[in-house]
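Need a sequence for this fold. Nothing fancy.
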């Protein structure tokens, strides 16, 4: 039996570290964290909309007296499912890598809200976006709330008597990805450097940076690993992510060298080793990003990628008797 249950809500990791989990970890259903010591707090990420973030903050306040006042927030990366609730802790110091802050400014919530409203005009991409995210989250009332303290490589903080290390390992999943390491508690909050029981999505790359980020976690003396999506894990979950990335890189390279078109390659790669992982349609983005790294002139845009993921997802659903996303 797993050490930590994968249930919605706040999980006490011991020593003033907490994880807030949102099963099933699919598109938009992200995790967050809280570090508290001697009346001081550091919140690790917010959630995809205000309702979800409010619910999380209420759960934290009910269990952790210090959480009644959130002093600092770190955004591990720019994606909305880790930042769109920022306005609810706007009095806190909001910390992020410089690259993360730039991406947040470039991709405000209003952009996603507009796509949500107009999804029928966006073809296959709109239909897929609506199915996996737009029909489940509310973005119309989200105000882009940007970080107020930026760093480039590493930032060391104290939360009470705890040392906390923020380590920028991007570009990888996005242009700026931060690991939140609490050495004394042998705990790390990974943001989307780690997906557990779900396919990762390589938006930025290069993939070798992501592999190096996994190696960084494995080099630390860590016991408890809180991923950006999925159940709490340990070193095994980190190794599984590294294995996936190296496997997909090698398989994509073979097909690229053979001249296979990008979307055909995404369908051609056998994923049997990862058969239990959710969101297999993300192989489309992963192979497209790898092809770009390899020097391909085929560079599909975001809407084209979402459209192709939608087709891939529908094909799998038809093949497996209509079983789609669990949410």
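Here you go.
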């Amino acid at each position: 039996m797993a050490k930590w249950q994968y249930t919605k809500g706040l999980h006490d990791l011991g020593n003033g570290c907490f994880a807030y989990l949102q099963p099933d970890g699919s598109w938009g259903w992200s995790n967050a964290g809280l570090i508290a010591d001697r009346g001081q707090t550091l919140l690790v990420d917010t959630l995809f909309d205000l309702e979800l973030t409010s619910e999380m903050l209420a759960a934290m306040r009910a269990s952790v007296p210090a959480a009644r006042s959130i002093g600092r927030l770190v955004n591990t990366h720019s994606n909305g499912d880790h930042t769109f609730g920022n306005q609810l802790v706007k009095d806190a110091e909001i910390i992020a890598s410089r690259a993360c802050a730039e991406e947040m400014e470039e991709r405000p919530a209003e952009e996603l809200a507009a796509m949500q409203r107009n999804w029928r005009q966006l073809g296959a991409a709109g239909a897929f976006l609506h199915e996996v995210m737009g029909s489940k989250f509310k973005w119309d009332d989200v105000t882009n709330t940007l970080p107020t303290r930026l760093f480039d490589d590493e930032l060391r903080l104290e939360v009470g008597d705890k040392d906390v290390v923020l380590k920028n390992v991007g570009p990888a999943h996005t242009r700026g990805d931060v690991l939140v390491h609490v050495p004394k508690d042998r705990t790390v909050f990974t943001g989307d450097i780690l997906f557990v029981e779900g396919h990762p999505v390589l938006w930025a790359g290069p993939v070798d940076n992501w592999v190096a980020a996994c190696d960084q976690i494995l080099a630390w003396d860590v016991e408890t690993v809180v991923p950006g999506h999925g159940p709490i894990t340990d070193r095994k979950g980190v190794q599984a992510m590294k294995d996936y990335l190296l496997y997909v890189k090698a398989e994509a390279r073979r097909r690229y060298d053979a001249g296979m078109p990008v979307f055909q390659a995404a369908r051609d790669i056998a994923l049997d080793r990862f058969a239990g992982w959710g969101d297999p349609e993300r192989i489309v983005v992963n192979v497209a990003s790898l092809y770009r790294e390899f020097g391909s002139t085929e560079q599909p845009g975001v809407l084209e990628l979402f459209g192709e993921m939608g087709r891939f997802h529908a094909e799998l659903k038809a093949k497996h008797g209509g079983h789609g996303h669990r949410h």
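For context: The CA atoms of residues 292 and 299 lie 6 Å apart.
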